[in-house]
Amino acid sequence: MYKIISKNNNIYIYGIEEFDLPHTLDCGQAFRWSCNENGLWSGVAGNKFLTLEKLDDGTVVLYNVTQNDFNLFWKDYFDLDRNYTKIVEKLSQNETLKAACEYSHGIRILNQEPFETLCSFIISQNNNIGRIKGIIQRLCENFGENKGGYYTFPTAQKMATLTVEDLAPLRSGFRAKYLVDAAQKVASGEVDLYHLRYIPLDDARNELMKIKGVGPKVADCALLFSHHHDRAFPKDVWIKRAMDTLFGGELPDCATDYAGIAQQYIFFYARDTKLLTNE
DNA sequence: TCCCAGGCTCTCT
DNA sequence: AGAGAGCATGGG
Length: 279
Description:
Blueprint: E1 3-7, E2 10-14, H1 21-25, E3 33-35, E4 41-45, E5 48-54, E6 60-63, H2 67-77, H3 84-91, H4 95-103, H5 114-123, H6 129-143, H7 156-159, H8 176-188, H9 201-208, H10 216-226, H11 237-247, H12 259-273, H13 275-278
Antiparallel strand pairs: 1-2, 2-6, 3-4, 4-5, 5-6
The chain binds a DNA duplex (13 and 12 nucleotides) through helix 6, helix 10 and helix 11.
């Protein structure tokens, strides 16, 4: 268990296990974090700007964060109250998964804002991570709120007023029409994002797939990264390769309860090492 | 120049 | 229900 100290308007997190900043913030689950040359990470989440770093002794420091903001937002965002040591232990019952866990150590599943996450993974389809980040940045700069130095992610209500032509500056290609449809269905209430975490995974997936451009993979990313559905298992090209070459098509039983978390470790392992394409 | 990227839709069997 | 082309854009 970790310990929190609030000092000089900063939050110090002592003794946190399995929390690697580059792995967590740059593993392809979130697209608005970046690192400077001093190892300081900055990003925007939940309409808040945050800078953080990990010190040599393992302490994680969140700068300019009140105790209240930490308790009400960042603690859940970084999934701090989940015991990843225990989960990794469980997954490591399988040797291949153990190797993936070791390579991808310290990845935590972020609990992100549902509409932002949905749009981000609509944009992600048939796309690469660098370009996904650029499109999202332009989306925020053009249609988000300027908070003085950073931009929020636009709301569904705001985006529902826009047309495909309005979204041209994003250079998001064929995905623009999907973003418009998502915004309209969320803003109108036809798709209620905020109850998806409380209903069964299959029902939640079907609900999201009412939106044009949302198939099983995009839906599962949204459910895993913003709706606490730990068993959602997004199957992208990398995971399909990994399932075929490393696991013979099926996840081992020890991964059932935390399939989504296992997925993220496998994704990072497979993509980062490229071992699957070179051999 | 071609290929690929955290896929999905549409069409044709 | 299953396979395959097409889709916007940009980096390697």
